[in-house]
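Reader question, answered in our methods column.
A reader sent in the components of a multi-part assembly and asked whether the whole thing could be modeled at once rather than chain by chain. We filled in our standard form and ran it. Here is what they sent:
COMPLEX SIZE: four components
ENTRIES:
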Amino acid sequence: MSKVPQSSSVTDAPLDEGQAGEMAHVLAALADPVRLRMLSFIAARHEVCSCDLEAPLERSQPTVSHHTKVLADAGLIIGEKRGRWTWWRLDPDRLAAVRRALGG
Amino acid sequence: MSKVPQSSSVTDAPLDEGQAGEMAHVLAALADPVRLRMLSFIAARHEVCSCDLEAPLERSQPTVSHHTKVLADAGLIIGEKRGRWTWWRLDPDRLAAVRRALGG
DNA sequence: ACTATAGATCGATGATTGTCAATCTATAAT
DNA sequence: ATTATAGATTGACAATCATCGATCTATAGT
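And here is the structure of the entire assembly that came back:
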């Protein structure tokens, strides 16, 4: 039998530092109210450009850009540049993976 | 029909600031490698006292106490004092609620 | 009473983080 | 070419946080 990379869950077994570090990284991206709302806005429609996020989030353009970067680095959203705009969409698989990592 | 308090998920609909704040609070408790390992240790056995966490986590007693408090304040673990020891156990419902809040 | 132990709390410190103004880059429109 | 716009980057600042030594509280054992 070949070894399959086993993504571990918190309730499964004691986590080692590597697993805990990776999980903490994604969870940290989620652990901010502005980013959670941002994520929910992006999930609501199928694509959202950065410029449409400033008003509902009541944050400046650099702050919005900062938060999209954090979510994208965590793999939770995917950005595509088209013309002057960057369009963001959710990566549902990534969110599902986080859910799984939280046991269940 | 009576209104049932609807705990919202990120992928459901745009979150308001209140919902996002609550979710961020619990997620922040999870977004730390030491606390994630702590949680996995507690989940592994059914009850763990604080003193048994210092060695595997390689952290001082005050640091361990700090982290147990953060997890307890977030409702993820429940502590019970018996004699000189505080025994910690997982609250599985709370963790399930977080999973649900992450869409699903 | 005295000693030892579990753990909470306080205070300090270094690191990380959310925020914005200013600037820079790139694309589109005239 | 010039102008306007989307958004990334930089730098600065205040706030939050993880960590630990020292101290305090409470319980158990002798």
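What stands out: The radius of gyration of chain B is 16 Å. The CA atoms of residues 76 and 94 of chain B lie 6 Å apart.
Send us your own complexes using the same form.
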